[in-house]
Design goal:
Keywords: DNA damage, DNA repair, Nucleus. It is a single chain. The chain is α+β, with helices and mostly antiparallel strands. The chain has two domains: 5-175, Proliferating Cell Nuclear Antigen (Box), CATH 3.70.10.10; 188-366, Proliferating Cell Nuclear Antigen. Helix content is 17%, strand content 37%. The chain has nine helices and 23 strands. The chain has helices at 12-21, 68-71, 80-83, 95-102, 117-129, 199-210, 301-305, 308-313, 374-377, and strands at 5-9, 27-33, 36-43, 47-54, 60-63, 66-67, 86-87, 90-94, 138-143, 150-156, 159-165, 191-198, 216-222, 229-234, 240-247, 254-261, 269-273, 280-285, 294-300, 316-322, 327-334, 351-352, 355-362. Strands 2, 3, 4, 8, 12, 18, 20, 21, 22 and 23 form a ten-stranded antiparallel β-sheet that branches. The protein has a six-stranded antiparallel β-sheet with strand order 17-16-15-14-13-19. Strand 14 and strand 15 form a beta hairpin.
């Protein structure tokens, strides 16, 4: 009997790079579809990471889905349409075990402190430049039938290793609400902020803010008055910091301003460094009249920090916010295939050529007292 799913990749590094971007959680929710494999991880229903391994990343991709009739043991039923309904397999696996398997022939990542944003980012950069994950390694994924383990076979220099990862039902009570079972909703028809820029600029800004160990990240954007786009870190033990992205009226020059406000009420110091001629490729801010001319939301900085690996690995980032304050950071990761194109859109899930996308979603903090109990201030989408 043919397996439900099998796929072969000639470069396990690509799979590792994308999955490592969402490696902040130990377990991942997987759904296998005709177009690729969807990985979803979440933290307490207030943060979610999504990675889609498009079938184009594999040299061969075979999907033989079961029907509901087959899953139910072929019993008779009155609704033939329901019996023939295709079932896309979905299950939970240990993401940490999968990542360890994908780099089993290489040198493991250093045990870097998870609280360091710059250290998390540097560990991803090594995936492209160091032997942490060696290039040219083939990887075969196989899922035989509903409930079977997910089999991963890696081959390199004549050495073959096969690992079988236990799969769990999404409604397994030991996992509570299955990770990724319910997406954090982003209202695509109520987007009030959309900013596309180089991921390196966002990475630099967050790294600067992380130096003061803040607890809250504030995002502020306006298309009418300065600062047009600003990120602020507050609530930390040292000081409050703000990074402003200023745009020239002719859109031919852009500056990156970093302002540090001393925690003791001291004088304001600032430094000005020109990074690039253009800060944003797309800048759309359309708040409702009740918000005035500016969009401003607060998020838990520790959650934003968990996207560090994606920021370091990506080329561009699309920052979107809806009217509820849900924040989406969609990262475009170029995997560097020779002859590939860097095409694709930052508004679609999946990949195009040598480009793939990783999406993070964050629920905003609510209330005026950002330094209070963070668990009470954060909405949870049930």
């Amino acid at each position: 009997m043919d397996p439900i799913f099998s796929a072969v990749s000639n470069n396990a590094n690509h799979l590792y790079t994308l999955l490592r971007c969402i490696g902040f959680a130990s377990k991942a929710f997987i759904q296998i579809t005709p177009d690729g494999i969807r990985f979803s991880v979440e933290e307490n229903r207030v943060m979610q990471g999504l990675a889609f391994l498009d079938k184009a990343l594999f040299t061969t991709y075979t999907f033989n889905p079961s029907t509901e009739q087959e899953c139910n043991g072929g019993g008779e039923g009155n609704d033939l349409e329901e019996q023939d309904h295709i079932v896309y397999p979905q299950f939970l696996i240990s993401l940490s075990a999968l990542l360890e398997t994908l780099q089993i022939f290489g040198i493991g990542d250093a045990n870097l402190p998870s609280s360091s944003f710059s250290n998390q980012a540097s560990s991803v950069a090594g995936a492209f430049t160091s032997p942490a994950v060696l290039l040219g390694r083939s990887c075969t994924l196989r899922y035989n039938n509903i409930g079977s383990p997910l089999s991963i076979t890696l081959s390199e220099s004549g050495i073959t290793t096969t690992c079988e990862l236990t799969t769990y039902e999404p409604d397994d009570p030991s996992f509570g609400s299955a990770a990724g079972e319910l997406d954090i909703p982003l209202q695509r028809d109520a987007i009030i902020m959309k900013i596309i820029m180089r991921s390196a600029w966002l990475h630099n800004a967050i790294t600067e803010l992380d130096g003061t160990n803040p607890t809250v990240l504030s995002i502020s954007a306006s298309s009418k008055k300065e600062p047009f786009f600003a990120l602020s870190g507050s609530g930390g033990p040292f000081s409050e910091s703000t990074v402003e992205f200023s745009m020239d009226k002719n859109n031919t020059d852009s500056d990156f301003n970093h302002k540090s406000l001393a925690g003791d009420g001291g004088p304001l110091s600032s430094k000005r460094t020109k990074l690039a001629p253009t800060v944003t490729e797309t800048f759309q801010v359309n708040p409702p009249s009740s918000m005035g001319s500016r969009v401003k939301e607060n998020y838990r900085f520790a959650l934003i920090r968990k996207a560090a690996r994606a920021m370091a690995a990506a080329t561009k980032v699309s920052i979107r916010g809806d009217i509820q304050g849900v924040l989406s950071m969609q990262f475009m990761v170029e995997l560097g295939d020779s002859g590939g194109t860097a095409g694709g859109s930052l508004s679609s899930e999946g990949s195009a050529g040598n480009v793939s996308f990783v999406d993070f979603r964050f629920v905003p903090l609510i209330g005026d007292d950002e330094e209070g109990d963070e668990d009470n201030e954060m909405e949870s989408f049930e």
